[in-house]
């Protein structure tokens, strides 16, 4: 396996970064248009900076880089807190769009490149709406056996892989998301890529409550944008909700998911993305 190149703290001392949050999913964003961070440093830098209590702390690191095509105004690299690179992130994508506008890189309506494909964004102050890549790999027939118990599950890729399980609001409240989530996330049915795991309770004809165990963070996060989208389209396929769907996240904020019932190929996610602070890296944060 290729080893990540060691991050050299001296070369990154003083580099500015921005902390942002979208529905409780928090990220460190860095404008890397000048390529001060070489490609090989991404995984290790994410592990160092995302470590809570010991460094900045975040669910992920986002590097904003020059676009490869004329359609986009930037390209990104998204790293989970454990250093794994993910194809897409809905809440991170909304932060990146707002950040790129603030940095003067893009106009309020723009597109950016991710490993999943081109994402279109519309930034109106704190509110950011993005169009995800068309959902694929839908499975409505999964039966998972975990610790001798059978679970009916559903799967869709909304940029990253998502498994969805339905529960009652009471069951959802009491659920040990970390322990069941980890067992499903590493279940052989989803190897080798693994999956994010969404536990979903319908709470109205257009409303869901969702708790997500996130791949690459390996805990329940306060929200997951692509997970909210996956939960909404699967709940709609099952006839449990109709769009637009409001998703109540475990952090207490809401996300709105837009799509057509007849053709779910165009999927939109809207919610707030906020700046928390801007600072510069110290050498010690990277040692
Ligand atoms: N929090 C994100 C998803 C980030 C990627 C995920 N952890 C993965 O590795 O699949 C979102 O808001 O969509």
UniProtKB/TrEMBL annotation:
Active site: 89 (proton donor), 89, 224 (proton acceptor)
One of the GO biological process terms: lysine biosynthetic process via diaminopimelate
GO-annotated molecular function: diaminopimelate epimerase activity
Reaction(s) the record says it catalyses: (2S,6S)-2,6-diaminopimelate = meso-2,6-diaminopimelate
PROSITE patterns referenced in this protein's UniProt entry, alphabetically: DAP_EPIMERASE
Entry-linked InterPro entries: DAP_epimerase_AS (IPR018510), DAP_epimerase_DapF (IPR001653)
Feature type site, description Could be important to modulate the pK values of the two catalytic cysteine residues: 162, 214
Coarse class of the protein's main subcellular location: cytoplasm
Enzyme class, first EC level, given as a word: isomerase
Family: Belongs to the diaminopimelate epimerase family.
Function text: Catalyzes the stereoinversion of LL-2,6-diaminopimelate (L,L-DAP) to meso-diaminopimelate (meso-DAP), a precursor of L-lysine and an essential component of the bacterial peptidoglycan.
HAMAP family: DAP_epimerase (MF_00197)
Name of the featured protein: Diaminopimelate epimerase
């Amino acid at each position: 396996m290729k080893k990540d190149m060691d991050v050299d703290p001296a070369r990154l001392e003083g580099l500015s970064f921005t902390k942002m949050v979208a529905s409780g999913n928090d990220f460190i964003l860095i404008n890397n248009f000048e390529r001060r961070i070489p490609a090989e440093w991404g995984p290790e830098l994410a592990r160092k900076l995302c470590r809570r209590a010991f460094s900045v702390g975040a669910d992920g690191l986002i590097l904003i880089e020059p676009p490869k095509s004329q359609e986009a105004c930037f390209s990104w690299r998204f790293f989970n807190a454990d250093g794994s690179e993910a194809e897409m992130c809905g809440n991170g994508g909304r932060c990146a769009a707002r950040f790129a506008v603030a940095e003067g890189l893009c106009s309020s309506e723009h597109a950016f490149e991710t490993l999943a494909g081109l994402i279109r964004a519309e930034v109106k102050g704190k509110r950011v709406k993005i169009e995800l890549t068309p959902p694929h790999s839908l499975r409505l027939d999964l039966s998972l056996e975990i610790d001798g118990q059978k679970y009916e599950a559903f799967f869709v890729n909304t940029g990253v892989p998502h498994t969805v399980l339905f529960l009652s609001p009471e069951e959802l409240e009491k659920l040990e998301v970390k322990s069941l989530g980890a067992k499903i996330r590493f279940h052989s049915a989803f190897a080798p890529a693994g999956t994010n795991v969404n536990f979903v309770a319908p709470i109205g004809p257009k409303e869901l409550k969702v708790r997500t165990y996130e791949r690459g963070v390996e805990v329940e996060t306060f929200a997951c944008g692509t997970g909210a989208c996956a939960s909404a389209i699967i709940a709609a396929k099952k006839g449990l909700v109709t769009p637009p769907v409001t998703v109540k996240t475990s952090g207490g904020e809401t996300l709105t998911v837009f799509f057509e019932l007849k053709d779910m190929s165009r999927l939109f996610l809207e919610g707030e993305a906020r700046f928390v602070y801007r600072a510069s890296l110290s050498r010690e944060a990277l040692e």
